[in-house]
Give the backbone structure.
Amino acid sequence: MDELINQGLQLMALGMGTVFLFLGLLIFVITLVSRVIQKYELKAEAPASTSTSSHDDLVDVISAAIQQYRSDHPRRK
């Protein structure tokens, strides 16, 4: 009986060690790939400043979409 428990504990330690090593390797590889991607990533261009007229146009489009939705879906009381 003692031998069976000892074998079970050894198997458990081997399995947990294998999983631990695999997860550690996975974290290392993901970190390495992330650094490589960041190193070779093209720098994003600075977004153009939004002018007031385009902002107003956007507000008008969103307002029209909301009005259209509300006319198609009346509220239920």
About this structure: The helical segments are 2-40, 52-72. The longest helix spans residues 2-40. The chain has one domain: 2-41+51-72. Residues 64 and 70 are 10 Å apart (CA to CA).
